[in-house]
């Protein structure tokens, strides 16, 4: 596939360009081209274009690069609109119908609601973290309950001497008889 593009020549920091017709697969600095169809010196604003040859190669299927295309339109070799070479931010569609505008507004409201819910959940988690030291307090109560458990054991110990008293009372009559 043939392209019409710039071929840089000239010294360092002194650019000048040949406008050449070349195969797309050839490197831009390779030096191999089919035909030279123009010249551009951006420092002196000098331009030399062979309009007939450029139109011929375009009719044969050669496609100009974006910057060459803009130059050809500027010099009125071709007609059309210039191609923007710089990157632009994507714009939101300004021709939205009222239904689609309402739908997008509804989606935005839902997003805001979800964000609020997330914030509330985070606040609750923070509160739970703050309440965790209070959970330590019930553990202290458990420590207090342990002595209460010891009290029934004391009762059991008291019960044992009573049993021993009964045994001793039984033994005493045995001894007396």
The CATH architecture of the domain at 2-74 is 2-Layer Sandwich
- Overall radius of gyration: 48 Å
How are helices and strands ordered from N to C?
EEEEHEHH
Can you tell me the residue ranges where pLDDT is under 50 for at least 5 consecutive residues?
Answer: 139-145
CATH 4th-level superfamily of the domain at 2-74: Ribosomal protein S16
Q: Per the principal axes of the C-alpha atoms, what is the gross shape?
A: elongated
CATH topology of the domain at 2-74: S16 Ribosomal Protein, Chain: A
- For the terminal residues, how far apart are their CA atoms? 134 Å
User: Please, how many helices?
Assistant: 3
Describe the largest sheet.
5 strands, mixed
Please state how the strands of the largest beta sheet are arranged side by side.
4-3-2-1-5
Strand content: 15-25%
Protein traits:
S16 Ribosomal Protein, Chain: A, 5-stranded mixed sheet, 5 strands, elongated, 177 residues, alpha+beta
Would you write up a description of this structure?
It is elongated, with a radius of gyration of 48 Å. It has 3 helices and 5 strands, in the order ββββαβαα. It has helices spanning 51-59, 66-74, 98-176; strands at 2-9, 16-23, 35-41, 46-49, 63-64. It has a domain at 2-74: S16 Ribosomal Protein, Chain: A (2-Layer Sandwich), CATH 3.30.1320. The protein is 55% helix and 16% strand. It has 177 residues and is of the alpha+beta class. A hairpin with a 4-residue loop joins β3 and β4.
């Amino acid at each position: 596939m043939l392209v019409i593009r710039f071929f840089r020549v000239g010294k360092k920091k002194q650019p000048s360009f040949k406008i050449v017709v070349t195969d797309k697969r050839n490197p831009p600095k390779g030096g191999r081209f089919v035909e030279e169809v123009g010249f551009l010196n951006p420092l002196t604003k000098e331009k030399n274009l062979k309009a007939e040859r450029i139109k011929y190669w375009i009719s044969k299927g050669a496609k100009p690069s974006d910057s060459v295309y803009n130059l050809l339109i500027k010099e009125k070799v071709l007609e059309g609109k210039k191609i923007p070479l710089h990157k632009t931010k994507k714009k939101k569609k300004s021709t939205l119908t009222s239904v689609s505008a309402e739908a997008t507004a509804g989606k935005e409201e839902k997003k805001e609601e979800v964000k609020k819910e997330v914030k509330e959940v985070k606040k609750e988690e923070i509160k739970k973290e703050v309440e965790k030291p209070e959970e330590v307090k019930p553990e202290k109560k458990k420590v207090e309950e342990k002595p209460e458990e010891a009290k029934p054991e004391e009762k059991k110990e008291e019960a044992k001497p009573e049993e021993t008293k009964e045994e001793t009372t039984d033994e005493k009559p045995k001894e007396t008889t």
